[in-house]
Amino acid sequence: MIPFSDEELKGVVEKSLEKVKPMLALDGGGMKLLDIKNGKVFISLQGACVGCTASDQTIKYGIERQLRIDIHPEIEVINIAPGMEHMIDQIANQG
Protein backbone atom coordinates (compact mmCIF):
# COMPACT_ATOMS: atom_id res chain seq x y z
CA MET A 1 0.00 0.00 0.00
CA ILE A 2 1.38 3.38 -0.98
CA PRO A 3 1.42 5.65 2.10
CA PHE A 4 0.60 8.84 0.19
CA SER A 5 -2.65 10.32 -1.03
CA ASP A 6 -3.10 10.83 -4.75
CA GLU A 7 -2.91 14.58 -4.15
CA GLU A 8 0.38 14.24 -2.25
CA LEU A 9 1.79 12.16 -5.12
CA LYS A 10 1.00 14.68 -7.85
CA GLY A 11 3.93 17.04 -7.36
CA VAL A 12 6.57 14.36 -6.84
CA VAL A 13 5.25 12.31 -9.77
CA GLU A 14 5.43 15.35 -12.05
CA LYS A 15 9.00 16.02 -10.91
CA SER A 16 10.02 12.38 -11.45
CA LEU A 17 8.41 12.25 -14.90
CA GLU A 18 10.51 15.25 -15.95
CA LYS A 19 13.58 13.01 -15.60
CA VAL A 20 12.35 10.55 -18.25
CA LYS A 21 10.87 13.01 -20.74
CA PRO A 22 14.27 13.73 -22.38
CA MET A 23 14.74 9.98 -23.01
CA LEU A 24 11.37 9.83 -24.76
CA ALA A 25 12.09 12.98 -26.74
CA LEU A 26 15.30 11.44 -28.15
CA ASP A 27 13.11 8.93 -29.97
CA GLY A 28 10.52 11.51 -31.05
CA GLY A 29 8.09 10.60 -28.29
CA GLY A 30 6.62 12.12 -25.22
CA MET A 31 4.08 11.65 -22.48
CA LYS A 32 1.39 13.51 -20.63
CA LEU A 33 0.34 12.90 -17.03
CA LEU A 34 -3.42 12.34 -17.11
CA ASP A 35 -4.26 11.53 -13.50
CA ILE A 36 -3.29 9.72 -10.31
CA LYS A 37 -5.90 7.49 -8.71
CA ASN A 38 -5.48 4.90 -5.96
CA GLY A 39 -1.71 5.23 -6.26
CA LYS A 40 -1.79 4.42 -9.97
CA VAL A 41 -0.21 6.91 -12.34
CA PHE A 42 -2.10 7.31 -15.60
CA ILE A 43 -0.14 8.67 -18.53
CA SER A 44 -0.70 9.02 -22.24
CA LEU A 45 2.27 8.29 -24.47
CA GLN A 46 2.60 10.76 -27.32
CA GLY A 47 4.43 11.24 -30.60
CA ALA A 48 6.51 8.31 -31.82
CA CYS A 49 5.72 6.39 -28.59
CA VAL A 50 2.12 5.85 -29.72
CA GLY A 51 1.92 2.38 -31.20
CA CYS A 52 5.65 1.74 -30.78
CA THR A 53 6.42 -1.92 -30.14
CA ALA A 54 8.80 -0.94 -27.33
CA SER A 55 6.26 1.24 -25.49
CA ASP A 56 5.50 -1.45 -22.87
CA GLN A 57 9.24 -1.70 -22.12
CA THR A 58 9.47 2.10 -21.98
CA ILE A 59 6.69 2.24 -19.41
CA LYS A 60 7.99 -0.63 -17.27
CA TYR A 61 11.76 -0.07 -17.37
CA GLY A 62 11.87 3.66 -17.99
CA ILE A 63 8.91 5.54 -16.56
CA GLU A 64 7.69 3.15 -13.85
CA ARG A 65 11.22 2.28 -12.74
CA GLN A 66 12.05 5.98 -12.27
CA LEU A 67 8.90 6.59 -10.24
CA ARG A 68 9.60 3.54 -8.08
CA ILE A 69 13.14 4.74 -7.39
CA ASP A 70 12.05 8.30 -6.62
CA ILE A 71 8.76 7.70 -4.80
CA HIS A 72 7.66 4.19 -3.81
CA PRO A 73 8.45 0.62 -4.97
CA GLU A 74 4.80 -0.27 -5.51
CA ILE A 75 3.78 2.64 -7.72
CA GLU A 76 2.19 1.55 -10.99
CA VAL A 77 2.18 3.35 -14.33
CA ILE A 78 -0.64 2.73 -16.79
CA ASN A 79 -0.68 4.05 -20.34
CA ILE A 80 -4.08 5.23 -21.54
CA ALA A 81 -4.55 5.35 -25.29
CA PRO A 82 -5.87 8.62 -26.73
CA GLY A 83 -9.66 8.63 -26.55
CA MET A 84 -9.77 6.10 -23.69
CA GLU A 85 -9.49 8.59 -20.82
CA HIS A 86 -13.03 7.68 -19.72
CA MET A 87 -11.63 4.28 -18.60
CA ILE A 88 -9.34 5.73 -15.89
CA ASP A 89 -11.84 5.39 -13.01
CA GLN A 90 -12.69 1.81 -13.94
CA ILE A 91 -9.02 0.78 -14.23
CA ALA A 92 -8.08 2.61 -11.00
CA ASN A 93 -10.63 0.63 -9.04
CA GLN A 94 -9.46 -2.77 -10.26
CA GLY A 95 -7.30 -5.03 -8.11
Explain the layout of strands and helices:
Elements: H1 6-26, E1 29-37, E2 40-47, H2 55-70, E3 76-79, H3 88-92
Parallel strand pairs: 2-3
Antiparallel strand pairs: 1-2
Helix content: 40-55%
What CATH architecture would you give? Answer: 2-Layer Sandwich
Counted up, domains total: 1
Unreliable residue runs: none
Could you spell the SSE succession in H and E letters? HEEHEH
Which structural class matches the secondary elements? alpha+beta
N- to C-terminal separation? 12 Å
Q: What's the total count of β strands?
A: 3
Q: Beta-strand percentage?
A: 15-25%
Mean pLDDT: 92
Q: CATH fold name, please?
A: GMP Synthetase, Chain A, domain 3
| Overall 3D shape | globular
Largest sheet: 3 strands, mixed
Q: Which CATH top level class fits?
A: Alpha Beta
Number of helices: 3
Rg (C-alpha, Å): 13 Å
**What's the CATH H-level superfamily name?**
Fe-S cluster assembly (FSCA)
Order the strands across the largest sheet as they lie in space.
1-2-3
Q: What does the model show?
A:
The protein has 95 residues and is α+β, with helices and mostly antiparallel strands. The chain has one domain: Fe-S cluster assembly (FSCA) (GMP Synthetase, Chain A, domain 3, 2-Layer Sandwich), CATH 3.30.300.130. It is built from three helices and three strands; from the N terminus they run αββαβα. The protein has helices at residues 6-26, 55-70, 88-92; strands spanning 29-37, 40-47, 76-79. It has a three-stranded mixed beta sheet. Strand 2 (40-47), helix 2 and strand 3 (76-79) form a beta-alpha-beta unit. Helix 1 crosses helix 2 (55-70). The chain is globular, with a radius of gyration of 13 Å. The two termini are 12 Å apart. 19% of the residues are buried.
